[in-house]
Amino acid sequence: MSELMVGYARVSTDEQDLTAQRDALLALGVEPDRVYVDHGFSGSNTNRPGLREALAACRAGDTFTVTKLDRLARSVRDAHEIVDGLAARGVKLSIGGSIYDPTDPMGKLLFNVLAMVAEFETDLIRARTREGMKIAKAKGRLRGKQPKLSPKQEAHLAGLHASVEYTMSELAELFSVGRSTVYRAVERVRQRAAISAKKDLGRG
């Protein structure tokens, strides 16, 4: 059996686009049908369906390919667990086109450095985010996450959803939001309708 390249791409939220990662994997030689993805999963979440499928698709001699190490894992420990599992099965790891062999001393050193840098960058982003939130809160600017759609837009969306003429994906594309936003908008409209109905019953 010939050796294959198995690609993996991930974004943390439904609103982010996987196109750039897909294109990069194709440019590295991964066939389109060998690209596995996770949409809306953080790197710290090891229970990712796309990652499980990608790892399961690898056979001895294959090359598991990601564009950047932080697409695979966000901590040194998690990265090592995944890579050690690949090495035990005879699967090579390619990060942005560079092959890292954890069984080779130099490859192991380079991988450790990459993993530590990825984890440091993640911790740095978290620290900056927390610091920014503290400053915003102190200045009275932090009011919580604002809905992407106005109540009027949500009502329109819910009406289209109730017509059963549009799928969740079509509604998401129509309103230029993620599917999770569509679900939340429909639920908010339902809750508002339920509250309004209760008030009307109270008046009666």
What does this protein structure show overall?
The chain has 204 residues and is an alpha/beta fold. The chain is 55% helix and 11% strand. The protein has 2 domains: 5-120, Resolvase, N-terminal catalytic domain (Rossmann fold, 3-Layer(aba) Sandwich); 151-203. The chain has helices spanning 19-27, 49-57, 69-72, 76-88, 105-138, 151-162, 168-174, 179-203, and strands at 5-11, 35-39, 63-66, 92-95, 98-100. It has a 5-stranded mixed β-sheet, with helices on both faces. Helix 6 packs across helix 8 and helix 7 (168-174) crosses helix 8.
CATH architecture of the largest domain: 3-Layer(aba) Sandwich
Question: How many distinct helices?
Answer: 8
The whole-angstrom Rg is 22 Å
Question: What's the mean pLDDT score?
Answer: 81
Beta content: 5-15%
CATH fold-type name of the largest domain? Rossmann fold
Give the biggest sheet: 5 strands, mixed
Inertia-based shape: elongated
Given the helix and strand composition, which structural class is it? alpha/beta
Helix content: 55-70%
CATH class of the largest domain: Alpha Beta
> What is the CATH superfamily label of the largest domain?
Resolvase, N-terminal catalytic domain
Tally of domains: 2
How many strand elements?
5
Straight-line N-to-C gap: 75 Å
Give the helices and strands as they follow along the chain: EHEHEHHEEHHHH
Major sheet: arrangement of strands? 2-1-3-4-5
